[in-house]
Amino acid sequence: MRRYVDRRSGRRDGGGTVRDMPTLVVFRHAAAQSYAARDRERALTEQGRREAEIAGRALAAVDPPDGVLVSAAQRARETYAIARDHGGFDAQAHVLDDLYSGDVDKVLAAVAAHGGSNRTLLLVGHQPWCSTLIELLTGARVRMDTGALAGLQVGPSWDGLDAQWCALQWFGSPRTLDAVARGPR
Predict the structure, then answer these.
(1) Which CATH number covers residue 73?
(2) Domain total for the chain?
(3) Fewest 10 Å CB contacts: which of 40, 136, 139, 177?
(4) 86 near 56, Cβ under 8 Å?
(5) What is the C-alpha radius of gyration for the chain, rounded to an integer number of angstroms?
(6) In-domain check, residue 18
(7) Can you give the three-state secondary structure of 81-129, one letter per residue?
């Protein structure tokens, strides 16, 4: 069970109680081709396929999603498909054009519309909105390289995300995620 600590008052759950908080996982698509006939059609490279495999195994080890929102771009759809297959989770995925646009307000609207009863919602998308969203919600500045994942404790609800309730819980680049995916030695 996650504990929420109000950053201003220092009290748990704003009143001393413990509650389950949802997790938003932001996943920048894995490495893709530099060009294609259309930007949306850029496919993953070999490196990108390896990054997606690693991320999938790491997600399975840390916090497998029960809901997924994926950009309509081919590289994002491929990233999720490979991560899902290697992570062994089968969350319902919604492919959305709004996650391709780069507009953080559209991303937040998609989260509000599709968050539902999910405990962990995975967003598979692009820069710059991945980093911008994390900073907007948590104040943390992270470098979202291709294949990077960030887990955010969020609240109070999917349709009412408030920066006072959100915190960056964990972050990993493909290199560090590989160690997580392999587990303790």
Answers:
(1) 3.40.50.1240
(2) 1
(3) 139
(4) yes
(5) 16
(6) no
(7) HHHHHHHCCCCEEEEEHHHCCCCHHHHHHHHHHHCCCCCEEEEEECCCH
Predicted structure pTM score? 0.88
Token pair for 173: 């680049």
What does the CA dihedral 157, 162, 167, 169 come to, rounded to 10 degrees?
30
Among 88, 83, 74, residue whose Cα is nearest residue 122 = 83
**96 assigned to some structural domain:** yes
Residue 33 lies in a domain: no
pLDDT digits (tens), the chain, 185 positions? 344 444 444 444 444 333 578 999 999 999 999 999 999 999 999 999 999 999 999 999 998 999 999 999 999 999 999 999 999 998 889 999 999 988 999 999 999 999 999 999 999 999 999 999 999 999 999 999 999 999 999 999 999 999 999 999 999 998 888 887 777 76
| Encoded tokens for 130 | 């991945």
Which residue, chain included where needed, has tokens 């994002």? 76
177 belongs to a structural domain: yes
User: What would the two tokens of residue 67 be?
Assistant: 């809901």
Q: Provide the 8-state DSSP code for 183.
A: -
